[in-house]
Structures
1.
Amino acid sequence: MVKILEGLRIVEGSAFVAAPLAGMTLAQMGADVIRFDRIRGGLDNGRWPVTDKGRSLFWAGLNKGKRSLAVDMTTPRGQEIVTRLICEPGEGKGIFLTNLRVRGWMDYPALKQHRPDLIMMSVTGDRSGGPQVDYTVNPAVGFPMATGPEGSAGPVGHVLPAWDCITGQQAALGILAAERHRRLTGNGQLVELALKDMALAMLGNLGIIAEVTVNNYDRPKMGNSLYGAYAQDFVCKGGGRVIVVALTQRQWDNLKAVTHTQVAFEELAVKLGVNLNLEGARFEHRHAITQVLKPFFDIRAVEEFEAAFNERSVTWARYRTFAQAVREDPDISVDNPMFSMLEHPGIGTYLTPGNPIAFSDAERIAPVRAPSLGENTDEILSGIGYSDGEIANLHDDLIVAGPR
């Protein structure tokens, strides 16, 4: 955790990926992020993956560095607690992050009555407030129909919730932008970000909307090729699989040199009548290029060329499973300053990432574990003015929960 955002406090009411990721991103840069949940736990309290005892590794991963308040929001007293927490006066406070369907007492107009300069970041499914998740947005915008083996017909969904991840980062950015605006003008605001809009924006940013509109081209499946340049996967002797990439001229030259195929590619370029130094030409003639490179990999195990590839700065990678990556990649270890071995109560000790951003003028601090549900309830209530007796009564009346 880098404490570059120390003094900033965000109250988070959230579930699943995008909003919790936004909160964790800010927490890992030093903001005080308080997550409130129902007493029995939020929607993602038991989200897979889980341990054999049912503890959510998902929760532990996306709530690092936060504090946890467990409260019954169906009661007026519980609603008062959450409102008081969100709207507490003070510099750097009055910031609310949510992707819940807030209505009535917890919507922006209602909360703004208690703090006129409130900043509220609302992450929604689509721009109309409809329910969407990454696994519905992705098919809707077209990516699964362009993913999969060349010539295949069925859609291929992606295991990575990309739009959730990007939306989480954009939500964190939106909060910081709104907070800067408030410091300059004194004005808070409602900031809205829809998961589907994030996907649609990237569809346009990557040129795909223009490609359909201007070129009248609907991109088909291309397997593991790199659209517009050269990349291909190869099965090596012994069964290992790698991918090589030649997007730039330097990458192309390095790949030819280390595979001793310069002359073969000069001959291929003459035969095809094209300049293979152009990345578009490499894409268009990717199958012919692959046939030249394939014999190199057919007769060599990965271990026989990996040192040469690295020395020559070839852009390449092994294909690994998650387990292989964790076991084999030195970047997934404490050698990488982003990682620490951290104990997570009820789960165990395992390699845990902190903030991936390195600031030259702020210390990188080891990651802080996620709280258990309601772990910080009493200190949070005390911090917003509840007395010890009032806190005890709230526990007795089952308005709040957590360790006493």
2.
Amino acid sequence: MTTPPTPPPHPRGHRAPRLARLFARGSWPETRRISSVLRKETVGGALLLLGTLIALVWANSPWADAYTRLRDTAIGPHALHLHLTLGQWAADGLLAIFFFIAGLELKREFVAGDLRDPHRALVPVVAAVGGMAAPALLYVILNWNSGGDDGDGGSGALRGWAIPTATDIAFAVAVLAVISTHLPTALRTFLLTLAVVDDLLAITIIALFYTDTLALAPLLGALGVIALFGLLVQKRIRSPWLLIPLALTAWTLMHASGIHATVAGVLLGFAVPVLGARSADATASGHQQAGQGTGHGTGHGMAEHFEHVWRPVSAGVAVPVFAFFSAGVTVGGLSGLATSLQDRVALGIVAALVVGKTIGILGATALVARFTRARLDPSLSWWDVLGASLLAGIGFTVSLLIGELAFGAGSERDEHVKVAVLTGSLLAATAATLVLRARNHTYRRLHEAEQVDADADGIPDVHQGSLTAR
């Protein structure tokens, strides 16, 4: 793999394009924030892996029936159409918190983060689109002849086209922690941003393509409640006694509308303001200070406050519990695994996660480099982009959710989907480990350079003396 050719020098008096380097180091405030987020996601990823492991062991033990009974236990009021199984509560309810955080994160990235600059946003956004389009296309190609009614409740194989499109950042970061690689900050930021854009596109796909019926009145009611929620948070009202009931009402109405209730989580996240008064002024002037921001109306605003409160709930409770109720598939040993992977849906998912994701992200990034004449940051190589692309093939949380929506929770094909998602994610993690570990000596050197603070002012020296220190 070679770096795209260096563009010729610009004539005297002409400026070079602003997008000069791909995967350049970001600003210190953004680097610090991304590091904090990923530390929390590492813990969440460990709990996710633990929940998955417990579910798999239990579902393949002599007590598998007890696991199934627990997952299928229904609770909730019939009158509100909320008499759901525990598995459904995890998928529809707890994941709404996960998508609320995704909405907050995406808005922060494009309002207060480095990605408010369209030139910086271009690479992860285009890579996210490529990383969703290529797996979907590969899945469709492999399942084209199975697109009709195949006896799976009238749901053809093509209904699963969106399953391999999402990246699970918690799972990916947990893999990084296990293999002990010092992935450069720029690549970590790229992965996180790509995963967040992934989540937005995934929830859009769920709303548009996996909504069978639509009740207009509850939908309008949900949007009205979300608008009221947004008005209150814009006025800096934080009372949980007021905001949580509004959020639950919006979720209930969205669920009643026929659109997947997690969509309410994303919309509520978008409604939260990102900047406080001082931050807005500083951002407008282009001189926001590294240490500014407390989340109390003077720094990054309400979004930082809500993210601080709810991210631990999402990473530590919502996602691991969902994994526990969704990953418990009875494999049946090697013969059962082979049987599941003979399903073309399963094969399509595995190929799309491992090959499609890699081609989509790597190819999209190369196209950005080709058509913008941008160069890869000198500290990195295209092998690093390949490793990150393979790591993005770890799909879990959203992939399992879409599998349930496509084929029905607990159906035979849904069981095959779970096996395929786990297999594909494991293969992608293994391939990424081989590539990234081979480059770990370079990453360790870059990591050490990023820690040097000779003047002991709390800001690493690499972030000073240039525009990145702003």
3.
Amino acid sequence: MKSITINGSKRESVGKKATKALRNAGQVPCVLYGGDQPVHFSAAELAFSKLVYTPNAHTVVIALGDTSYNAVLQDIQFHPVTENILHIDFYQLFDDKEIAMDIPVVLTGNSVGVRAGGVLRRNRRKLRIKALPTNLPDNIVVDISKLKIGNKVYVSELENDGFKFLHTDNTVVCQIKQSRVSVDIEDDEDEEGAEGAEGAAAEGGAEGAATTEA
């Protein structure tokens, strides 16, 4: 999985006044959990843009002077009006310890059902998995090329040796739903088939009549 580096500074004071002063200076107060003790630090709000404002999943390298920590974003709080970042919690990664994380789902291919007029419905844009840090994927790829109208893709069909899904096997990832257009297409095909059969029967009857008269 791709990683983003956040350069920050440790916080000496974690009181309300110090936190407010940090925010006024364009800094975001953060806490890193998962180690022996929580690590309090801050970083410029702009430093989090590639981590927060993206549909992709990333791990994070938190660089605090001479010390660096591997981590993942655990929780984030935004101001209800300005939508500025108020606070971020991170969780420290260890090579031998599994971590739970939401991974984006990427659909590939042109569905047979969609070409027939069906509608693609994405039930899950992200899936939560559990894996060692080295096995965390950038995304989960789902090929929908062979999906017909009414078909669904379940989590059980996406099993991977490198990680496990934290969802039930019958969780639907995506499906092709029938639409009005697809119904009309099917009705038109049925009508054309019926008209063809009637035409053939009529021609056969006419030919039989001509033969009798002769």
4.
Amino acid sequence: MTRARQFPGHMRADVQVAVDQLLASPLHFFGIHEEYRYETLAFAALMKEGRNAPALAPAQYHDVEIGEAQPVKCLHNGLWLCRAGELRYAVLLSFHREYQHEAAIRIEIAVPAGAAGDALVQRSFAELEEAVHAARSYRGKILSLEGGSDYRGRSSGIMVHRLPAVGREEVILPEQTLKLLDRNVMGFVGNRAALRKLGQSTRKGILLYGPPGTGKTHTIRYLATNLPGHTTLIITAEQVGLLGAYMKLARLLQPTMVVIEDVDLIARDREEMGSCEEPLLNKLLNEMDGLKEDSDILFVLTTNRPEQLEGALAGRPGRIDQAIEVPLPDGIGRSKLVQLYGKNLPMDQTIIDEAVSRTKGVSAAFIKELMRRIAQASIFRDDGSTVESGDISEALDDMLFTGGRLNITLLGGAQEMAGS
């Protein structure tokens, strides 16, 4: 008799590691070649004869990236002939394909009928399931779902983002905003166990809002690289159609932070939505509503246009628990940004003060670009040995005047600066 289980294709790295451990000492191992790959390879198909029958072949592997120094070598199709004591059995690994659905990893075990065979099957599947639920390849990392191969030819499925750690001192926000962020994210996560004991919900929704370029994405990187033991899932607006798969991952990899950037693109006023957009919004709202109260899942949504958010998302308690404004930097913030992004430039305090005074109303992204252009001007003049007031003027002229109003908007400058 045979019995089979299927595991999500994007978890193939963990399935492969578990299979390698489970079948470390087979009697024989064979690769299997399929001439036609639109059917799922099963033991029944191995009984076929003729020109279209599956054939023994060298094992075919794909390198799957998991964010480590080495990828996981994942088998495409394989057959193991094994023995456990007097019991002989066979294991077949293959891909299950279904139109418009993600391919799954299929494990089929053939054993003699009887209690001994049944026990071996149950034990084997239990080990595989435990490995998949442990998700050691991806737990604690920053992930997004991707398809195809990267430029090195490695399959992704799940893409691991290797982001440098961002320290709290590198998050240039008003102190009251930082304290609000710490209380509602860092403090909340640290107190989850205590909240659970008191019968309180451990799921949460945060909305980061503010003009473009003020540091919302940078703030998310700070959270993602500093939340202890958390896995972060980053969902862009165009990927919301994959929300179901993302939420399965979120539940599997708890505690998780689920980030949806530019949520206003799918959560606009219903009267402005097309027939394709509204189901995406409903799916998001249903997922946020459907989480159990003890789910260790933190939603962080971002928007540049909070006024356009659908009322069902912004106005109902339990979906968004705290909105946090990420504002344009004030004078103190601009001074910190100038020093952060110009930390290797030879600037004295007079130059720093001038850069701060001449950038009122701009975004953090604008100051970052300004410091790069000042560095370029310094390099052209004396190989980066000095920074002069003229370097600031030259950079601001290009950014605010020569390029016109569109350039100001693109760079995150204040429109009123164009007339100053």
